[in-house]
Amino acid sequence: xxxxxxxxxxxxxxxxxxxxxxxxxxxxxxxxxxxxxxxxxxxxxxxxxxxxxxxxxxxxxxxxxxxxxxxxxxxxxxxxxxxxxxxxxxxxxxxxxxxxxxxxxxxxxxxxxxxxxxx
Length: 119
Hints:
- By secondary structure, the chain is an alpha+beta fold.
- The protein has 4 helices and 3 strands.
- It has a 3-stranded antiparallel β-sheet with strand order 1-2-3, with helices on both faces.
- The longest helix has 18 residues, at about 95-115.
- This is IclR-ED domain-containing protein.
């Protein structure tokens, strides 16, 4: 699964700078799986900036129609990615704010349990 099409991939990409993202995706071709898939570098950078601000990434039916996901990277003290945490649900059952709050809380707790700083 391409990272730009799923919340966990986008959560991990969001830990990188826009410059790094532009270098990673410099070939300009984006695989799409649904009509909701991110298809341009500018759209990806905008989505990653939103993820950085809110503290988690969101997949709104970008890889599978009828499925939404929220995710957060679990980072170590120097920002190194140690793990990722994601929750997926059918769109009709996704309670975006509840799932996002839970993912952020559990990811932060996991980082603390591993004796690392919050991202």
